[in-house]
Amino acid sequence: MISMENIPLSVRMLSRLFPLRFFFAKFTKIPVLGKLMDRMFFENDRIFYMPKDKLIQINQSVNQDDSIVLPSEVLNYFIDKSKHHVIMNFCICRKSKDCEHYPQELGCLFLGEAALNIDPKLGKRVTKEEAKEHVKKCREAGLVHLIGRNKLDSVWLKAKPPEKLLTICNCCECCCLWMMLPNLSKEISSKVTKLKGLEIEVTDKCTGCGECVDICFVRAIKIVGRQAIINDNCRGCGRCVDKCRFDAIEIRLDNNSLENSIININNSIDLS
After folding, report:
1. In what helix (H) or strand (E) does residue 261 lie, and over which residues does it extend?
2. Mean pLDDT to the nearest integer, 102-111
């Protein structure tokens, strides 16, 4: 059991307000207020979901090199690049929801100079090797990685400047902050994106059971005529692929997709 006694009051208050995130997210759709909230909490954000390595079928031509970058390697690339690594003592999402399905102690990993400003009561500095072991442990626990520039983390952790803080979240489908994506304005929700070149396809193995509908927190899947249909709201997290007991959903990734994501993240974050 994780105690909140020594946690800063501001973080304890945030934890109590966490269940109201869906309500607050709706205010971003009010034009003037939405722009203000965007500037305060989401400005210049660029965030990508990283599906599990085992789920990906690479769209690779016969003539191309066999050396393919996998999602876990993208994380390791940035862990190696950064001089500073801080692992949170707990996941504020799962702690706030008192999650019973995934470990509450597997918190986010923060990289970059701004991570040094995180309160020691909330997280600890670790080595590159410890950081890699942490994200591996999160994957083995069934969590899905999300990586990118997330100003909201810079705000609540007082870890500034935001351009020097790289977030690696380890998300579950029951407690994740970004379950509020459908409630956010289109301008803000579009900052959490599917990897370019990633495709998710429903095959003819689909029975229309609807389990994938329940697991999708962005409401991107519907059952039409006993067949699952995935719309453009999909963020490519791969949870539906992982959970389908009929192996009816496939996820594919272009050869250059993850390399392009490295370039995009490098352009938004300064890890020097």
Report:
1. helix 257-268
2. 97
